[in-house]
Amino acid sequence: GAGVSQSPRYKVAKRGQDVALRCDPISGHVSLFWYQQALGQGPEFLTYFQNEAQLDKSGLPSDRFFAERPEGSVSTLKIQRTQQEDSAVYLCASSLSNKSAFFGQGTRLTVV
Amino acid sequence: TQLLEQSPQFLSIQEGENLTVYCNSSSVFSSLQWYRQEPGEGPVLLVTVVTGGEVKKLKRLTFQFGDARKDSSLHITAAQTGDTGLYLCASSNFGNEKLTFGTGTRLTIIP
After folding, report:
1. Of A96, A101, B46, B108, which has the maximum CB count within 10 A?
2. Is A100 in Cβ contact with B45 (below 8 Å)?
């Protein structure tokens, strides 16, 4: 596709449930980022991949959060045992190396 | 970690008026980007500034990067309802692609 695609757009999870969020970056983009955006706030960095290598995961809030990009293209952000404070919009962005990032529409996660 | 403060947090003005929003930090930026985000969408890049004192114009939008590269402003002339949105500044550290976002300015243009 022409842009970064994220699925699902909306996800409602019961507290304690595991969720998986998918990101399809722009074809050929080496860099992929995940951000978390709480309501009314700016996005906050979670993790960064260059191809299949996860170079920075310093923003992941706990060990319940896990991200992968096994073939250097599609990425999945997994959250285990979801809690209410995990409710947010999760944004994926991709870029050519050291170039501007393009964002997807995000996945809005609501934990009830 | 750099902290980016944006002001004002909320701004509501009449169509046709001019406005300026600000982005400030105590740290030096290697580069600074401005994004606009509409409800239900991801941020869309408006401009990147890299040189202290730089001024860039994008139609009715004028972006300025401070001489010391610690602050930036976005000026909109003759605001239109289509300018409504969340305006975010973001910076990256030298040699690091990850972005640190500001707190955002939520702009509403009243017809």
Report:
1. A101
2. yes
